[in-house]
Amino acid sequence: MAATPLRSRVPTGRLSRAIGVYGLLLLTVLLIVFFSLLLPSTFPTSLNFRAILSDKAEVAFVSLAAMIPLATNKFDLSIGYGLGLSHILVIGLQVQQGLPWAVLAVCCIGLAVGTINGLLVEAAQIDSFIATLGTGSVLYAISFAYTGGQQIVGNLPSAFVEINNAAPLGIPAPAIYVVLLAIGMWLAFEYLPVGRYLYAIGANPRAAELTGIPKRRYVVLAFAGSGLITAFAGVVLGAKLQIGQSNVGNEFLLPAFVGALLGSTAIKLGRVNVWGTITAVLVLAIGISGIEQLGSSFFVEPLFNGTTLLIAVGLAGYAARRRVRTAVIEEERAMAMAAPSQEDPPAVDPEAGVKS
Known about the structure:
Elements: H1 14-38, H2 46-55, H3 57-71, H4 79-95, H5 102-122, H6 128-147, H7 158-165, H8 173-191, H9 193-203, H10 205-210, H11 215-241, H12 253-263, H13 274-293, H14 300-338
């Protein structure tokens, strides 16, 4: 009885694959059309789109920051706390200490915090959940100790305020920072060895080590990059708020992982990637903006983020399993095509003699 051809079991439909890869982009367009029809006087306006690009820049930053350790299958739960401390320090160092190089100092602190996270995970062999949750709690405590539970208010240099307020060609500066960061990370992940190494570590750490990849070094590097990006996001947030508050930052943790995990269901299925993350952040930003303009209650945003996170985790797991399953089927198909067919008769040498 003939076996079922492997070709029929391989998901080769171009339409289904295109929907899987570009589904989030399609959802983004559909959301824009939907809310534009419901809110024709407020949603499809340049003012609203500029507000979306400016208001969600910090979410895009922390989503990209979370994506880097996720590529190595690690989690950085200190992102929200790091963002909060960075925005406090960049305000306090200028207002209270009068330091003109506060931005550089805060970025260096963020880099150091990320490096410590990486060392705790790799050198001390502490689970990334526990290690980064612990450092996040420490950062939160430092934020309260530095501010004394009070707001930090004072005169800030105009150059610092322009970090957020500038709008070249009418485009909010934070959106430009996000695009430049995304391009840089995309080039690193797609065309440089560091990106391939991080993906290899996330896929199979032991195999990566056996091929000569220094796993510990690159995991620490991933957390250091996450800390640096988080710190810069805090700088942009400080330039926007122009006051330091110790309770700011925690609310960015959930959207960060929603963006990164939901992004793994698009562009490169089952793998965190830059443009998928950016698209996921746009879906969140457009959805929340439209819901708020419809007159929703204050609790809708965390409800939307939490529900989307659950959906994102489920879809990310499904995409990863489908990616592995497809690879296995393709490998079986290649092996079957390479093997000689059992239905073909054995070759006979016409010149071979017959024994008498």
